[in-house]
Design brief:
two-stranded parallel ribbon, 18 helices, globular
């Protein structure tokens, strides 16, 4: 409305079952009741559950049989969370750390007395009074918050666990303490504290209300390049870990060496980051179509006297034509074939600001009609 997108909440539709066909049928019936032609559906957004996102029998694939060119957009934040979780599950060194973090959260969360013990140690060590956050596979950014809290209170957590074991002989306290005192766990925490905020930064950028569609691909590429930096021998997280080495070793009895960190990088960090990058890249393949709609942003059209003006957007139009071209009739109104030349009228021979502006407007209209 007036050039701005408008959102409307329509209804909550009761379901007799939760399989794809039932959901699909309910959606189609609801749209018919509201006199909304589902054949004009241009896009749909779901989470990554197979019921919705399945390429062959998911709700999105069933809807595409009615509206073949409708775009399915996987919720980007959920997508990034899944990319992180799946990369972690595929890397045993990171997967075990995630399991330890979940066990740690349960240990303190379900016992106010234990939580108070941790708080007391944090006060004595003059550390932030942070609670261990629940790491969840489905809650966006939860692993980042959990890792950040554990890293900030690492010494206090280990000390509190040891104190609780000495007082109660609780085997869980001893088991978690031993897990946290493994060098590989500590190194993984520092790695994750570098990697997860990079993904979280991308996630937050994709949640902005007025995101530039053409900026999504560069944002993803920039994140992937930043993740590459984590594999460098002198990566920021490695330098930070070495700076905190003496203080951590004094409290936890962990012995860190340059060789052990290098071994972790080769055996755990590099496979994890490569898997994470592959997961993110594979989930943004269809982003080219969405980004190509940026051609309709008049603010991005080069000035008429710019050398880029005459070729502006041709690559984006090619992407859109490849996706939507089947909707074009075989011939134009004038009987010509639909070629790039037909879609982009030749520049007028006469020059001047008036004709440049006229050509610019006519070309923009042509793009829109296509």
């Amino acid at each position: 409305m007036d050039g701005q997108p408008v959102e409307h909440f329509l209804d909550i539709v009761p379901l007799k079952a939760t399989d794809a066909k039932t959901i699909y049928s309910a959606l189609v019936e609801f749209m018919k009741d509201k006199n909304i032609p589902i054949s004009k559906l241009v896009g749909m957004g779901f989470d990554g559950a197979a019921t919705f996102s399945g390429k062959h029998n998911g709700v999105q694939s069933l809807l595409k049989k009615i509206s073949p060119h409708a775009l399915f957009v996987h919720c980007h934040c959920h997508l990034l969370q899944l990319a992180c979780v799946q990369a972690a599950n595929a890397t045993s060194g990171i997967k075990h750390v995630y399991i330890t973090l979940t066990t740690l959260w349960k240990f303190f969360h379900y016992s106010p007395k234990r939580a108070e013990s941790l708080k007391a140690v944090q006060q004595v060590l003059d550390l932030p009074e942070l609670k261990v956050v629940k790491p969840s596979d489905t809650r966006w950014l939860s692993h980042e918050c959990c890792v950040k809290a554990v890293k900030a209170s690492y010494s206090a957590i280990v000390t509190a666990l040891n104190n609780i074991y000495e007082q109660t002989h609780a085997p869980e306290a001893l088991g978690i303490s031993k897990a946290l005192c493994r060098p590989s766990t500590l190194v993984a925490i520092y790695l994750l504290d570098y990697v997860l905020p990079q993904v979280a930064k991308l996630s937050r950028a994709l949640q902005t209300e007025r995101i530039d569609l053409t900026a999504i691909t560069p944002l993803v590429d920039a994140t992937l390049n930043t993740l590459d930096d984590a594999m460098l021998p002198a990566a920021n997280w490695v330098l930070e870990l070495m700076d905190a080495k003496n203080e951590i070793e004094e409290v936890t009895d962990i012995t860190l060496t340059t060789e052990s960190i290098a071994t972790f990088q080769g055996q755990v960090a590099e496979p994890f980051i490569r898997m994470l990058k592959a997961n993110i890249s594979s989930r943004f393949i269809s982003q080219d179509i969405v980004s190509s709609f940026g051609i309709f942003d008049p603010k991005k059209v080069p000035a008429a006297d710019s050398s880029d003006f005459h070729t502006y957007g041709e690559d984006l139009i090619d992407v859109l034509l490849a996706h939507y071209g089947a909707e074009l009739p075989a011939k134009t109104a004038g009987g010509d074939e639909y070629t790039k030349e037909a879609l982009f009228p030749a520049k007028p021979e006469r020059s001047g600001k008036h004709f440049e502006a006229t050509y610019r407007r006519s070309r923009k209209v042509t793009c829109t009609c296509s």
